Each structure stands twice: as structure tokens, then as C-alpha cells.
Amino acid sequence: MRTLILFTSATGSAEKYAKDIATALSGDVFPLKKFKWKTLPDYDLIIYGGWVMGGKIKGVDDFLSHYDEMEGKDVIIFSTGMVIPSKEGRKTLIDTNILDLYHVRYYQLRGSFDMSKLGFIQRSMIKMYFRQIEEDAEANPGYKALLDYVHTPLEYYDQEGVEKIISVAKKIESEKEAK
């Protein structure tokens, strides 16, 4: 079984996760923008990872625009973001990104954050978002905690989440081999 891992990354978390998953599964890994879609038939399992901003998984629309070409293949999507993964956050991401319309497995991983690695527009949007959190007395304490990372990078690696994706991929592989 051949495995393909695609990613879109801003601060490096999705890329690191994608490369680590590719290493564990002996898969091929590419940035989404550099992948040649004509080679998609060569793969049995496709994994996509993207970072979250404003509730949207970056690159997922482009990735899913090729969903018809993935018919008969197993698809896993993961996202990385600053917030701690939760059931309600996962549901919100599934709903916002309309993942429930597709037959995919989805995993939410926590990522690192470094404001200095973002582009001007992304930095501006995040600063505006953080100002809204600061001014909102009712804001979730978890969101308020994010304010600390405006000036101090957050380094985080979700080993458990990565291992879960690898485990599921290996289970898919063993089930296909058993058929």
C-alpha cells in the first residue's frame, strides 16, 4: 500500500507532523501546492494536514476539490492549531470545514505558534483577534491564555495525536492486506 501525505503549513507544525507521519509509514510527503495530481492513482491512502486560522483548515478546500479523484481510497485529514484539541472544537472544525460531507477520518492536533513566522496579513488578523479576546470579559479562559503567545513562541508537539494517526493508517493497511 502506498501512502501520500500532503500538507499546508505556516509556522511549521503541519509540515513537521506530515514528515514524521511519512517517515513512520514510509510514505511520500509533499506540500499541497507542489503535488502533481496526475500521480494520485499511485496511492491507496491519502493524508492531508493543514493549519487552522479563524476556524478554517488552510488548504482543505483545494485538497477536497480533488475528492472525486480519491474515490476508493482511504483519506485522513488532520489540522494543527494553537488551541488545545477538544470534542467541541473538533465538532466546530468539522462543521466549519464541511468535513461531514466527505468520507474522511479527521484528527485535531495541537501545533506550535510563532508570530514571527507569519506573514503581514496573518499577523494583522491574529492581532485583531487577540484584541477581541482581551476586550471580551466572557471569553473562554483557554482563549485568554493564548494572549501570552503574542510575544513568546509556543513550542508544542502532539506525540499522542501523531501516534494515533499512524496507528489508524497501519490498521487500514493491515485490513487491505487481509482482503
TrEMBL record:
SUPFAM superfamilies: Flavoproteins (SSF52218). One of its GO terms (molecular function) is menaquinone-dependent protoporphyrinogen oxidase activity. InterPro entries: Flavodoxin_dom, Flavoprotein-like_sf, Protoporphyrinogen_IX_DH. Residues 4-134 form the Flavodoxin domain. Pfam families: Flavodoxin_5. Gene3D superfamilies: 3.40.50.360. It comes from the Bacteria. GO terms for biological process: heme biosynthetic process. This is Flavodoxin domain-containing protein. It comes from Candidatus Alloenteromonas pullicola.
